[in-house]
Design a protein that fits this description.
The strands form 3 sheets. The protein has a 16-stranded parallel beta sheet that branches. A two-stranded antiparallel ribbon has the order 1-2. The relative contact order is 0.05. The protein is 19% helix and 23% strand. It is α/β, with parallel strands linked by helices and 404 residues long.
């Protein structure tokens, strides 16, 4: 284990140099993880695009890691009051995880950098925030938080904050100037809320995820600088958002958008001719939107786009329910999911999806057959469907037989 740590320290020094040469933090972390996978120290499962979906450890590796972290007090899993008292006495402790509620009011450890809570059901945050001074990571996404205590906004070193169900998000959240990741439980309260406009002042944000019951408002003209570090945006947007918002998120890689009202008004910024400006975009999810199938060609022109998820697409008031692709579209697309759609006809050729791997169809009752061109895609690995017509299911089975 010591030899492994020494090798990793040398490896990390080299990787820091790479980071300075232009690699993002996320790319660097992924490379480190892939290095462990190549050495058979970490087991992983991957999605259809080849990205790592989950990780696990061999029993012996896990036991060795646990033993080493306990010896050096690097990470401690608090399971009962005895373990909590032990943590209090050791000032070397930096990281804590817990799966149950303990009396953290008595917990005094200003050296803690990470607090992970895997299962809580009560209002937990106010009980212990006053005990921490230097946390970088605070994850209580499984708990009911209610209102955020004022002590939270004094944790100026926070870089990762994951919260459970909230009553509201105050403007004071913007005082956390070093925050890079802000996650509000996507399965949180159904109550309608607006994110504070001050969100746009958080220049270090890289990932912003919030429930569809919240709305991100249009930034005030000239009041903030672009969020050039933002890579992930997931949640509902104010219908009044316009194309100026694109100037605020120029380097976005993952975008999931929900539109609450099914009207004939489409936010200007998400018109296809505006969406094509997001050249770095790799993943796009559109939920309850008002596009037509004719608009999809612009999404297909995005040079790095690999994952496309369409839910309730297009809306039921759209007259055109035919999707016809053309050559040169979707050069990198690997994964396509269509859920709850009135699509009737899909006309395509294998050359239109040169890297396509996975097709997911859910509740597409109007689609009677998969396009003939799909069966000739050499990279296709999986077609998965449910709640569809019998003829569509038969079409998928025929493709499977012809590829065998």
């Amino acid at each position: 284990m010591n030899k492994l740590l020494e090798n990793n320290e040398s490896s990390m020094a080299k990787k820091v140099y790479k980071c300075l040469k232009g690699m993002s933090l996320e790319e660097e972390a992924e490379e480190c993880l892939e290095d462990l996978v190549r050495k058979s120290l970490v087991l992983v499962t991957r999605n259809t695009t080849g990205e790592i979906k989950s990780c696990s450890l061999h029993d012996q590796v896990r036991d060795s890691c646990i033993r080493k972290t306990q010896e050096e007090m690097f990470l401690h899993n608090v399971t009962d009051m005895y373990h909590l008292q032990k943590c209090i006495k050791d000032k070397r402790l930096r990281h804590i995880s817990t799966i149950s509620h303990h009396n953290f009011r008595k917990f005094q450890s200003p050296t803690i950098h990470t607090f992970l809570c895997l299962h809580l059901k009560d209002r937990f945050i106010p009980a212990f925030l006053g005990s921490f001074r230097l946390p970088r990571v605070l994850d209580v996404v499984c708990s009911y938080v209610g209102s955020l205590p004022c002590q939270l906004f004094e944790l100026i070193h926070l870089k990762y904050l994951a919260l459970g169900t909230l009553d509201d998000i105050p403007a004071a959240i913007s005082t956390l100037l070093n925050l890079q990741t802000l996650i509000i439980n996507p399965k949180g309260s159904p109550l309608r809320r607006n994110l504070p406009l001050e969100i746009w002042r958080m220049q270090q944000l890289r990932h912003l995820v919030f429930p569809f019951s919240y709305k991100l408002l249009n930034p005030v003209d000239g009041s903030t600088l672009p969020l050039e570090n933002l890579q992930t945006l997931s949640g509902a947007l104010d219908p009044a958002c316009n194309k100026k918002i694109l100037k605020m998120i120029p380097n976005l890689k993952e975008l999931e958008i929900y539109f609450e009202n099914k009207t004939d008004h489409v936010p200007n910024f998400i018109y296809p001719d505006q969406l094509e400006k997001l050249k770095q975009l790799k993943k796009l999810s559109l939920v309850d939107n008002l596009f037509s199938w004719n608009d999809i060609h612009v999404i297909g022109s995005l040079p790095h786009h690999q994952v496309l998820k369409l839910r309730a697409f297009p809306n039921y008031y759209s007259q055109l329910q035919t999707w016809k692709t053309t050559d040169g579209e979707f050069p990198q697309l690997k994964f396509l999911q269509i859920h709850d759609s009135c699509l009737e006809h899909w006309i395509t050729e294998s050359s239109h999806f040169p890297r396509f791997k996975c097709l997911i169809l859910r509740y597409c009752w109007s689609l009677l057959a998969i396009s003939d061109g799909i069966e000739d895609i050499p990279t296709l690995e999986l077609i998965n469907m449910s709640h569809t017509s019998k003829s569509l299911a038969d079409s998928a089975k025929q493709i499977q037989l012809e590829q065998q």
